[in-house]
Amino acid sequence: MAIEDAPSKRLPVKDIYGWILEHFPYFASAPTGWKNSVRHNLSLNKCFKKVDKDRSQSIGKGSLWSIDPEYRHNLIQALKKTPYHPYSPGLVTPFTSPPTSPQPYHSPLLWPRSPFFRKNGVLLQVSEGVIQNGACVRSHCLFPVIRSLPISPVGRRTTAIRSALGDYLTPCDYPSHPPSDDLQEDHNYSNAKSPSIPCSSQGPSVSDEDDDIIAVEVGVHRGVKSEPKEVPLDSASVSFLSQHARRRGLPWTKNRLRALGDTLPLKKRRSAALAEKPPLESDDEEMKEAAGSLLHLAGVRACLNNITNRAKAAQKEKEQKEALRN
DNA sequence: GAGAAAGTAAACATTG
DNA sequence: ACAATGTTTACTTTCT
Ligand SMILES: [Mg+2]
Fold first, then answer.
1. Taking burial as the number of CB atoms within 10 A of a residue's CB, which of A6, A26, A176, A256 is the most buried?
2. A119 touches strand B (CB under 7 A)
């Protein structure tokens, strides 16, 4: 999107970072991993191409990134599906941020007709009954439908996210031409399939996203379909924005690995680190707390214990696996 | 339950 | 020399 938003349709990573920060302020306070992810995606996905250094001379460090025309159409096609996305039908101006106000905090709306606005730096939605803060919301500028999840596998926040994503990554109807433009092998990112989602969009629903990310949907749903279809679109590059938020507050991994002998190869270090896990309760507690807030908001407190128990079960299973491995 | 897909973290390589 | 950039590898999680 950043690239697409650029007049020249090409951007250096730095500017991509910038765009993301501008449109998803969450990342400003997010741990640094996301930049890595950005680069990773640019590099791995075939739909992103570096433009020749010759033509893009002297931007300093790296080169400009562009979208391979072969994938562009599909990508945009899928983005159009999102109701509030700049590419939505009826929106004259795609992405391009108001030329007058490049700074995120000065523009009241993320883009024209966006249902989101800022108040004291917090992103709010105009009238859908969703009040949130944090990545979830911000990401939902892209993926505004927060679909309910059967409060299932505990801590699987991704599920919620993917669930929501499914709406956008799953073409419900193909306009003029199906996005069937052949997208071959690639690194599966580029021709990812959308998850098929048994859609249950009724009733109060809950979607948790981590400590500070809470989204409660109050019967908000629009045009949801669930047929699994090929999604000729680089879903990864988009969804990492949301996905990324999942792993926060776990600095132990990094530190542990470092602490465990820099001489060890990564592989060894990892398993070594796994051997001494972080205190499990923290995860549990974190989960419980998050779930608690959510459920409280949703008025479904009773589920909490259920959830916690499942979390513990999952944890136990994990430990057993680990034990087997060693 | 296996395997694919999609994700993160980090090592490693390159370059200005 | 260093930091930003780019590539690759290892591993986890989620979905089918
Ligand atoms: Mg690429």
1. A26
2. no
pLDDT at position A53, please?
A: 66
pLDDT at A116 over 50: no
The model's pLDDT over A80-105, given as tens digits with 9 standing for 90+, comes to 554 444 454 433 344 444 433 333 32
A177 CB-near residues (< 8 Å, 6+ apart): none
> How open is the CA angle A24-A30-A34, to the nearest 5 degrees?
80
Query: Beta carbon of A185 within 7 Å of strand B?
Result: no
CA of A42 to the centre of ligand 1 (A): 5
pLDDT at A39: 92
Which residues make beta-bridge pairs with A12?
A64
pLDDT tens across A183-201, in order? 333 443 333 333 332 333 3
Nearest nucleotide (CA of A59 to C1'): B16
Can you say whether the dihedral through the CA atoms of A204, A136, A241, A175 is positive or negative? positive
Q: How many CB atoms lie within 10 A of CB A154?
A: 22
Rounded-to-integer distance, Cα A223 and Cα A219, Å: 13
Model confidence, pTM? 0.54
Fold of A2-81: Arc Repressor Mutant, subunit A (1.10.10)
Strand order in the sheet with A64-67: A10-12, A64-67, A48-50
Say if residues A197 and A163 touch (Cβ distance below 8 Å): yes
Residue pair A1/A95 in contact by the 8 Å Cβ criterion:
yes
* ipTM higher than threshold 0.90: yes
